[in-house]
Specification:
alpha/beta; Rossmann fold; globular
Length: 651
């Protein structure tokens, strides 16, 4: 396995997340924990694949806060440890992160937060960078794939030098793109855990580990601020902060992370290497003031290129204002000036446009030619298809039944959504079933709140949906709260037996852990019953029974109810290449676009395993994509879709 080789003579093509994992291995990581979330998941996946060979403990935790606590325990015992999450997860972990930054760490501890500019796989493009300043810890941002590996390794040393957690921020195009990486030697794995607690309270190495000494903040907050000052001093000579360009540039670009690559390409496309310099910062909080002063002094115009919010830009402006008597007035370009957008991903074309305006140079048709090529490809490419779920997805069947049950009930009932593949329930691909969508677990919390509004005349049925992993992550407290306060809503748990959206990572309801070891699985139904909820379990592929159960639960007005719709994800190992039915369309019966159907299966139900045959005017099965779930046979009003049991089916 290439992750474990000590060959230092070859370059290895690694995804950014794999490079971060290799950096952790070279840094001597002993314990790694996290919660799956794109674009971060591959880091823990990579480390779990070599856990036995490297004597690691690797864990997919129940949520990000617990993951950070698990990792911190290893640091307190003197081990090197890493915690991994996406940007939304930092919000979940922030409660403990605030306290951990105050108590400090012992063994090197690194928090990797992978942001998602453009919200390519998220419900928002929230920033993790402000947390570093908020809790007063160092922030590092690798600018390419080699740095992703090297900075991660260095971060463990930095953490132990300042005795505090260090944060690394990646972004989607750093985490999921690939590049060449050269390895260094892997260390021994003979670390021994030893938690010392017999020293005085004020001794960070041998005393109890606490986040604040009550009534004496200066004994802990003061040293915490000294740590961040020490980090700033170390950053002055950080080898990962680099400058390229003329000695006295006409314009200075200050940038970090993947934006470094965009900036280099934009300069090359416009052929302005002799006019523009790039100061690439890997240490974006705290900023190294002397280094910043050195490069602000060589030019009067500065463009800050970053994703998403103008955080780096504003921090540099603060330093520039403090140094104004020495470096003179400066003109800044970037997000606040409107040169760079404050939403979405950046790309070389955006930087080209900014440089063209600032330098008054002609964009040599880069953007126009790209747009023309893209437009031409769109005309000849695949047909437009709205956001939908996979063929045979149990969530499509679940949302179909939920939508129809609420329509037949007729009291304007609605569903409070959650984070998972079922966010498609907001759109036509999910029958516009979901009406609220926020953070993990909030669907059930909001539904529980709606359920208590009867005294104000609200009689609409209220439902929530969440996945099995989300149930353990954040929905259990919401359910407990609703049961305790007798909130009459129905929680629907879409149990597809793993964190399917991010790659089937295990959770407390599955029988294996991140390292493939057998572990006890927690029974969701029994947990809900023990809490005091009324619980029903149904197969969402049984449309009739599911809808009957929903009608019963919606009509039953008192108390909190739970319906578990239990069916494995269509892409899971147990269902993939294991169809239960062979589907076919009887063309003699199919009424297609005529009254009484109007292409219900392809136009409304929308499973990609169904196609519309324009020439014949009938539906047909896409044999390549169909997973044989059989649901379409139940929704066909004419009974034209037939299912035949597969003899080799393993159920």
């Amino acid at each position: 396995m290439s992750y474990l080789t000590d060959n230092q003579n070859n370059d290895y093509l690694l995804m950014g997340n794999e490079a971060i994992a290799r950096g952790a291995l070279e840094g001597g990581v002993n314990v790694a924990s996290g919660y799956p979330g794109t674009p971060s998941s591959e880091i823990i996946e990579t480390l779990s694949s070599v856990a036995k060979e490297r004597n690691l403990y690797v864990e997919w935790s129940i949520n990000e806060k617990v993951a950070l606590e698990v990792a911190a325990s290893a640091s307190f015992a003197g081990l090197r440890t890493m915690c991994v999450m996406k940007q939304n997860g930092v919000n979940v972990a922030s409660d403990f992160l605030l306290h951990l930054a105050s108590s400090g760490t012992r063994g090197g501890m690194v928090l990797v937060a992978c942001d998602d500019p453009g919200a390519l796989s998220s419900v928002n493009e929230g920033e993790s960078r402000p947390f570093a300043r908020l809790v007063e810890i160092p922030l590092l941002e690798p600018g390419d794939f080699q740095e992703a590996k090297d900075i991660t390794k260095w971060a463990f040393d930095l953490s132990e030098e300042i005795r505090n957690i260090v944060m690394i921020r990646s972004v989607t195009r750093m985490s999921h793109a690939s590049g060449n990486v050269r390895y260094e030697q892997l260390p021994d794995t003979n670390a021994k855990a030893d938690f010392r607690f017999d020293g005085p309270l004020s001794d960070p190495e041998t005393g109890p580990v606490v986040s604040m000494i009550v009534g004496a903040s200066e004994l802990q907050h003061g040293p915490q601020q000294e740590k961040i000052k020490k980090a700033a001093e170390i950053f002055e000579d950080c080898p990962f902060n680099t400058y390229e360009g003329p000695e006295k540039p006409e314009l200075l670009i200050i940038t970090s992370s993947a934006c470094t690559l965009y900036s280099r390409e934009a300069i090359s496309l416009l052929n302005v290497k002799d006019r523009v310099g790039i100061l690439k910062l890997a240490t974006t909080w705290p900023l190294p003031p002397r280094l910043i002063k050195k490069y602000l002094s060589v030019t009067d115009r500065i463009l800050v290129v970053e994703e998403v919010l103008p955080i780096l830009e504003e921090n540099i402006k603060i330093l520039a204002a403090e140094m104004a008597h020495e470096i003179g007035p400066k003109t800044f370009y970037g997000k606040n000036a409107g040169n760079i957008p404050s939403v979405g991903e950046l790309n070389p074309d955006i930087v080209v446009s900014a440089l063209s305006t600032i330098l008054d140079v002609r964009d040599e048709g880069v953007s126009e030619s790209f747009a023309k090529e893209a437009a031409a490809l769109i005309k000849t490419g695949a047909p437009v298809r709205g956001l939908t779920m996979c063929p045979g997805c149990p969530h499509r069947a679940s949302l179909w039944s939920i939508h129809n049950a609420l329509e037949m009930d007729g009291r304007k009932g609605f569903v409070c959504g959650d984070i998972g593949c079922y966010v498609a329930g907001l759109w036509p691909g999910g029958f516009n079933t979901v009406k609220t969508l926020h953070s993990m677990g909030s669907g059930s919390g909001i539904a529980g709140g709606f359920g208590k509004l009867r005294q104000f005349g609200m009689d609409q049925p209220v439902l929530s949906i969440c996945g099995d992993s989300t149930f353990f992550h954040a929905a259990m407290p919401a359910l407990a709260n609703a049961i305790h306060h007798k909130s009459p809503f129905t929680m629907i748990i879409l149990d597809n037996r793993g964190a399917a959206m991010t790659g089937f990572q295990p959770h407390p309801g599955t029988p294996v852990n991140a390292m493939g070891e057998d572990v006890p699985s927690l029974d969701i139904a029994e947990i809900c019953r023990a809490m005091g909820a009324t619980v029903e379990i149904r197969n969402p592929f049984d449309i009739e029974e599911t809808q009957q159960t929903l009608h019963h639960l919606i009509e039953h007005q008192e108390g909190t109810k739970v319906l578990i719709l239990d069916q494995a994800c269509a892409l899971s190992p147990e269902r993939k290449d294991n169809p239960k039915y062979r589907m076919k369309v009887d063309e003699e019966i199919c009424i297609g676009g005529n009254c009484g159907c109007n292409r219900l299966c392809t136009r409304i139900f929308g499973c990609p395993g169904l196609l519309w045959d324009e020439e014949k005017g009938v539906s047909k099965i896409n044999d390549i994509m169909c997973t044989g779930c059989g649901v379409c046979a139940d929704i066909c009003p004419a009974g034209a879709i037939k299912r035949e049991e597969v003899a080799e089916y393993v159920g």
